[in-house]
Write a structure and sequence with these properties.
The chain is of the alpha+beta class and 411 residues long. It has 11 helices and 19 strands. The strands form 3 sheets. It has a 10-stranded mixed sheet. The relative contact order is 0.09. The mean pLDDT is 94.
Length: 411
């Protein structure tokens, strides 16, 4: 059924109310843009209530295996990325990864004196974005089909580049098409964890100004760099696997890790307490920065309920892998209402106790030194004269760049 104007307005205002409450909308400029753009016209396949739900990210295209390869991002994530970008009237902005709605928001922010260009590698996606933009009255947005790895040099330089696909690297074309004083906002994947990072060009490298948790479909084309998964236990409803952002274990090691799930296992508790509603995103980023052999343990709920593993997550729990052993973060409730938890680690395999102790010790370090800290990301071109600081806690090398994570020193 077609929604009435009043129903659309009510849904939009409720979305804005929630986005303000979630602190995704922080400025009157972003709020005005969100209010101006009719989001439902960019997702006509779903009901209006779903189109305006802050966490809904409707899939608009899947590959032959049914995996999502294009979607209209959740409005919460779009709003927070626009806040990170700090787009101003008159700016020239490139969006990498097209959908239509976000480009319309950008067009509202840059105003009639600005310029918005939206690109995507997929002709179906750019055609759809063009139709939706025209239907919503945003004919001024340039929509171009091109591999995102190349950027879009015709309309460069850009004051802002907003990337709406997950990337593991920052191609030289992006920094090369950035205007002086420009900013890139991109969902960068490091160690399997994706954060939307606001990156400013400082000298010859990029430095983060802030970052937020997010999730996006991965890049296609020349910049494609997907995570690799191995299955350790394949019983239906009890699947257990490991996801690696880089080199995966060989067949022999996978067999050893699968065998390691057989009891006994080692549990080590840290004494660190956390509220039931407190986010663990900061802790996970710390563990990704300092644990060797970092991976993400994925497990169905049935695997935890049957005692195969002590933690379950379809997205992934931080883990460390060494040889045929692994250990990962876990927690246990300290009260009946499950409002307070203790953090610890569970280990499997010959080195279960040692690895669990290592994870638990890093949880203690995070609690003692970094619980209220924010990390800094740096992105350095491979082969550049800019030297990666020796104080960096993590350095990840990709085809084009070396990405660093550094935590404040409290020495």
């Amino acid at each position: 059924m077609t929604a009435t104007t009043d129903e659309v307005e009510a849904a939009r205002e409720e979305m804005i109310r929630q986005l303000v409450e979630l602190k995704a909308i922080l400025s009157p400029e972003v709020e005005a843009a969100v209010r101006a753009v009719p989001r439902h016209l960019f997702i006509p396949e779903v009901p209006v209530a779903q189109a305006y739900a802050p966490e809904e990210s409707p899939v608009t295209k899947r590959d032959e295996h049914g995996i999502a390869i294009s979607s209209v991002s959740a409005s919460r994530v779009q709003a927070l990325m626009l806040e990170q970008a700090q787009i101003r009237p008159g700016m020239n902005v490139l969006e990498i990864g097209s959908g239509g709605y976000n480009a319309a928001l950008i067009a509202e922010l840059v105003g009639p004196e600005g310029r918005t260009t939206s690109i995507d590698i997929d002709q179906d996606v750019t055609d759809r974005a063009r139709r939706c933009l025209d239907a919503a009255g945003y004919q001024q947005v340039n929509v171009v089909r091109v591999d995102g790895e190349e950027g879009e040099p015709q309309h460069a330089p850009y004051d802002r580049i907003v990337v709406t696909v997950q990337t593991a690297d920052i191609p030289p074309a992006w920094t090369g098409q950035l205007a002086e004083g420009g900013r890139i906002v991109a969902p960068v994947r490091v160690q399997g964890l994706t954060r939307s990072i606001a990156l400013d060009l400082v000298g010859g490298h990029l430095v983060s100004r802030n970052y937020e948790l997010c999730g996006f479909v991965p890049m296609q084309g020349a910049g494609e760099n997907r995570m690799r998964s191995v299955l350790l236990h394949d019983a239906p409803g009890e699947e257990v696997g490991l996801r690696f952002d880089g080199v995966t274990p060989n067949d022999g090691q996978v067999k050893e890790l699968s065998a390691a799930l057989t009891p006994p296992r080692a549990e080590v508790w840290s004494g660190v307490r956390i509220g039931g509603m407190e986010s663990l995103d900061n802790l996970d980023l710390w563990l990704a920065s300092v644990l060797p052999g970092f991976a993400l343990l994925t497990a169905a709920r049935g695997a935890r309920e049957s005692g195969i593993v002590a933690s379950s997550s379809p997205i992934g729990t931080p883990a460390t892998v060494r040889g045929g052993s692994l250990a990962y973060r876990m927690s246990r409730p300290l009260d009946e209402d499950r409002t307070l938890f203790e953090l610890g680690a569970c280990g499997h395999g010959p080195d279960a106790k040692a690895l669990a102790e290592q994870v638990a010790e890093q949880i203690k370090t995070w609690d003692r030194e970094h619980r209220t800290d924010r990390a800094t990301f740096g992105v350095y071109p491979v082969g550049s004269t800019d030297v990666v600081p020796p104080s960096a806690d993590l350095v990840v090398t990709r085809a084009h760049t070396r990405t660093t994570i550094s935590w404040p020193s409290h020495a």
